[in-house]
Design brief:
The structure is a homodimer. The first copy, chain A, is an alpha/beta fold. The first copy, chain A, has one domain: TIM Barrel (Alpha-Beta Barrel), CATH 3.20.20.210. Chain A is about 45% helix and about 10% strand. Chain A contains 13 helices and nine strands. A seven-stranded parallel beta sheet of chain A has the order 1-4-5-6-7-8-9. A two-stranded antiparallel sheet of chain A has the order 2-3. Chains A and B meet through helix 7 and helix 9 of A and helix 7 and helix 9 of B.
Chain lengths: ~350, ~350
Amino acid sequence: MTEAWHNGPFMQAVRCEPAEHTPVWLMRQAGRYMAEYRAVRRHVPFIELCKTPARCAEVMLTAVERLGVDAAILFSDLLLILEPMGLGLEFTQGDGPVLHNPIREPADVDRLRELQTCDALHYVFDAVRQTRAALDPRLPLIGFAGAPFTLAAYAIEGGGSRNYLHVKRLMMTDAGAWNALMSRLARSVARYLVAQVEAGAQVVQLFDSWVGCLGVDDYRRLVMPHTRAVIEAVEPHAPVIHFGTGNPALLPWLREAGGRVLGADWRVPLDQAWAAVGHDRAIQGNLDPAVLLTTPAEIERRVRQILDLAGGRPGHIFNLGHGVLPQTPVENAVAMVRAVHEFSA
Amino acid sequence: MTEAWHNGPFMQAVRCEPAEHTPVWLMRQAGRYMAEYRAVRRHVPFIELCKTPARCAEVMLTAVERLGVDAAILFSDLLLILEPMGLGLEFTQGDGPVLHNPIREPADVDRLRELQTCDALHYVFDAVRQTRAALDPRLPLIGFAGAPFTLAAYAIEGGGSRNYLHVKRLMMTDAGAWNALMSRLARSVARYLVAQVEAGAQVVQLFDSWVGCLGVDDYRRLVMPHTRAVIEAVEPHAPVIHFGTGNPALLPWLREAGGRVLGADWRVPLDQAWAAVGHDRAIQGNLDPAVLLTTPAEIERRVRQILDLAGGRPGHIFNLGHGVLPQTPVENAVAMVRAVHEFSA
């Protein structure tokens, strides 16, 4: 039996097949910009929310219904995988995530343990199951994880970073330690994503959110082989959306690393991004999230512009170029989704 | 009489003429990474240093001698021009610059007054004169200013920013107010740079340090005409180095805005950057500043790689892709300069 989601616009676009309208979702579509989410968070700290599957399902389903998007994504966090790998993770009020024992020196690398089984992350798979069970069967559920570089950067910097100096120093000075760390992350992430697929996700997104701080040569030599290892391990199970941001010059090499769908940010026009990753792949993007702080008229103008650049070619998934900003008025996000559906139908 | 600097490697590269070696300097070459600079700063707050011409000359000459670079740059700050334009500027310890009365709404734009004369910035021109007088006559002195977008972003955000939401919101929602603000900045910056040339600078650099947060279409429509106005006003007086960072997709449009030399960051390989800006222009760049935190051997390897990509074509000025990081060991900066000279001779 073919499930309903299989022939919906989202999975059609993933396969570069024509669809009745351009599918759309928003990165971080369930989040602080939404009153219903803030109401939940008033009683539940972020990490507790991530570990309560019923709540994860609830906040995501609320967002999907409010926005009218074409896919749900697991409600979770990139960094949870680092906890069972041995890092002390905390989400501080306002300042974001902190890792209490970052990897700084080559000798620290062995403190990051490979995830041999994903049992410790049982709450994630429960969230996948509960979200899938409650979700409209016509909509796919997207699982996700951080790409090895972005996870390594968090593990080494110990939190947010401006110039990524610690991770670059380790990467540039000790290729042996670096490749050991990245291989361990790659194998762990691959297992984690396959387990999400087994729990009920139809497609997964690999977030390389911080990769744009790298030049092309460093990416190719020191990052690409590890990302490729993840994607090769996962794609027999489900298609991968490979998302990077911050450096359009990397797009051809993100393609080389793999992914059925490549995600691009707003720095590069959509047609140019698609040409860079090749028209045999689907493309996801790429409205500047700041546009959602303007007006419905301006949002419509820019949605139309991106759809024009896509030119009706099958294989476009509309999205922002990065996550929804907390300052976004929800009605503007709704206006964006409506405009994509209306102008592409 | 032709001055000595005119036939040195730096000005030859600016004109895309063959030079005896590839000229090199570092953005922020006099700064916190240097013990001599920290010694001066122990007694003098940053803004006071900027307003004491003899000190400006001293810290720059010390850096030029210590590094053996092929050019000096005025010691100053991008934001000083905003003070006589009406913004309350303060450099706080550790947190960087703060503007106390940022422009937030279209109605605020008139608070930013056009700089009709540069008299209020007399200390800058004194610093140019004193640096020029004391500098080796074979080395050119580079003047500089912020590009209109980067100055507007500071004026609107009120300091550093992560997502540039205030500036993007104003830019995207009120083109009239935005263009009024940008025109006023462009005319002020042009006067300021011409005055630096008249005081003794041989070349000027326009820093669009924050422009990489923009996509191509916004840059072309809302920023490029204003940057072009600055460069067209200045180039009859001295060649302009036009530097942007953070988005390689902008390079062809930075070229359209103008500049005898285009500056590129490390996100894109040098040969690709040069092709994007055209071989009729000189190129400046583009070592990742993080490389200076590694070892002399790794620095040499990467210097050689960039020189190989330049391929001996006349018109390459070696530099970092952004300013020297405070954590940089001075001996590594010296090793970089030495490697550029040795490998390109």
